[in-house]
């Protein structure tokens, strides 16, 4: 099977893309009968039949091109020697792939290629991993008659500007695979073939550009497509050819790309996207493809450490000592202050199995429901909003569904930066293809994201709303749909509660919800809102994609429900091409939520007050479960500063950097008696920790992640944990240390327990995941093969529920002191708080966080690009450098939050979503003034960080 | 046991009340929300606030919801 360890070979390449057809065509290839779907090429048919027609410019993730002339065949009754990559199968066709005539033609073609190619195969980094070499062998090339004295490209210099791969034009055969991969797969259009004939040359950007200075986004598609050593990973050059490949799942964003970890011993040589992966379909981005070097970074902590107080240096200790100390502290604090003084935070970075164990440790071991997860600060409103309206806390579609969309509405998401591999798929659908017009695009975002205008993609409507007015804009769109009679009432009558719909329709139809009335609030022209609404309601299959620009607001849950209302009112639920699709931030946000990480819910979204659900867990775990909801992260911190919350176990989350109002988080942590941080690095939160347990990377563990399409995918261990234990083992050791009788020997046993206790996972187990590659929950008796699309025949809750979402302005208001609105986001090359990506070569693309400011606002303040500015809010202030751009509207400023020195969360407020307390990161009233450099807080914090990271006896301490 | 964070709870419950004004029974919706998502300590804190400060600073719907919860707790 494809995902198991085996001797290294590349994934099979069938030459041209798969074609889906109900009609099968039977033909003869070299005397063998072959049946394939109508529309398949002769090349692919031959490959499916186990043959291999020589080829160079063809590869099965790109459209056929027909330039290399190597794949010629003879077909009875057809003149000449057609190219098999562009010739479609026909019934009764009789194909010959190897004849003396073809042999001669192919050798002639190959001879020309090789006459301008270095013959350094033995020392070439692609030796034995090169299609040119393979094809020279296949055609039986024995001699090059032309000699090497003529004009050639052998002296061309290598472009080493990209940190992860080289471009060596001396080995290029001008097959255009890289150019086509950049266009068709990635959709960036950064590469071209410059010149004609002999002068033809692959060029990134302008002639004066290098790969690094060009528009290239370093996704690796060109490297994967290259048949020679022209575009190749530097790591292959340094290490050599891999010896084995293991399929695993990326640990960056919620797209959940699957990769072949191509290994030599325990060393990763390269991560190559797995073509059979259903989330990424063989594509990747700069993070998953290349940015895994953090696993070996020198700052990674490998030994457990303890200290009596946070002003002391760390002491390295044995695992036994660290866990024993942790257990005695937990026991002491529980005895002194009660179980509710304890709590834990599960990680959206860790596996389902690890997350499940942490919440089990808290509920069954600590004896409290004080467990929460980092989804609190990103997608908790999705959980609340979609559960209320549809009945389940998840997106409705698989990623493939987008290919059937006619209108795509993107709100509060920047997929080309945040979810790049899915963005490439979306852009594929947005571009016309084979005569089919591209899907229409509506972008609702305060900032002009790349999706609004990029090569061959232009949004039909961009609604540059004022941050904090999502609900107003969506209600205005609903107003247009209802008052202009565009709602799909037949769908609503059949699927939804009609009375609730009418109540909602009456509300949105009020004049005060019209685009005209709300324009002064939202800042969006009424005609644009009207046209966007009409397009969405009448343009065919309408799909909504959204991100944290929806959830991280004081009305985050309302916005999610407004989105659900819009989808139901237009009948866009329950089939391919439509739906409500949250783009999840982290790799396992979906899974962390599914696994019962919230203080009020057991796995599978069952409230702790539900006696039947509790009874199931109580019987299995042999302990009572508290029927009262526990504390959420912000409430834990409040309780800590109140003096009643004393100990916390935090797995794989850096709340000090990622949670709002840094000073409040710091005060909460400082008030606790025992902070246990379990992480790869001494993160910012660890500045306040008493016990540090080193973590393991996704390459070092077995388990599963669940991506944004509810797809449960295996994570497979390719190397032993450098710290000694997989994270689930560390949690188990801690559980054993406090007296729990846990004896899991493999994460598969944890998954069996999850399946036993969670109805939507009842059909999930490792054997099935290995056999199927992935499964989309619910997987149960009703849906034994999983559920790519949800709510097909009806909503999970029964009738779809319309909820009136009245626009309630945030308490965070601009005024004379803080006249601008700050909103935040991500950049492609970095990931969240940057703990991983900052420890890779990705920093070359983004060395620091910059503040985007409109030219008018900049001029009023005397600010130029590159200047240091002071960014101040009611909560605090920080400094960073400005970049002046009209991507943001006047009155709006924007920054990323990838670098700890920026301390963007010193500035954000403690306002939060009304239903879930998801923080309002996306709206902060600020003032910008010129500055000379870092603020006092930044400098003081830097000193504190250095002091709190000292390790006794190490060079770090000696250097102080 | 009521600490400084009670002011936050007042703000939270008022915010919930402001966002459910169009529900059929806003008081019941706020009461259900608090019962479903607030920990026992948070509910006890706000109950103490009610005892000590009455409806001070509370939205009328939020106040009615909290009173209904308290009656339920007393009855239970």
Low-confidence stretches of chain A: 956-960
| Radius of gyration of chain A, in angstroms, nearest whole number | 29 Å
- Nearest-integer average pLDDT of chain A: 94
Quick one: overall form of chain A?
A: globular
Question: Terminal Cα separation of chain A, in Å?
Answer: 54 Å
Q: Strand order, biggest sheet of chain A?
A: 13-12-27-26-25-14-15
CATH class of one domain in chain A: Alpha Beta
Mean pLDDT of chain B: 89
Number of helices of chain B: 4
The fraction of residues in strands of chain A falls at 15-25%
Total helical elements of chain A:
31
Query: Ends of chain B: how far apart?
Result: 22 Å
Number of strands of chain B: 0
Task: Walk me through the structure.
The complex is a heterodimer of chains A (about 950) and B (about 80). With about 950 residues, chain A is of the alpha/beta class. Chain A is about 30% helix and about 15% strand. In chain A, the strands form ten sheets. Chain A has a seven-stranded mixed β-sheet with strand order 13-12-27-26-25-14-15, covered by helices on one side. In chain A, helix 9 (about 350-365) runs parallel beside helix 25, helix 13 (about 470-485) packs antiparallel against helix 16 (about 515-520) and helix 22 packs across helix 24 (about 660-670). The longest helix of chain A is centred in the middle third of the chain and has 19 residues, at about 320-335. Chain B is mainly α. In chain B, about 40% of the residues are buried. Classes of the chains: A alpha/beta (about 950), B mainly alpha (about 80). The interface between A and B is medium-sized, with 32 and 21 residues.
Structure keywords:
heterodimer; A: 960 residues; alpha/beta; Ubiquitin-like (UB roll); Rossmann fold; Dimethylsulfoxide Reductase, domain 2; 7-stranded mixed sheet; 30% helix; globular; B: 76 residues; mainly alpha; 0% strand
Please sum up the structure shown:
The complex is a heterodimer of chains A (960) and B (76). Chain A has 960 residues and is of the alpha/beta class.
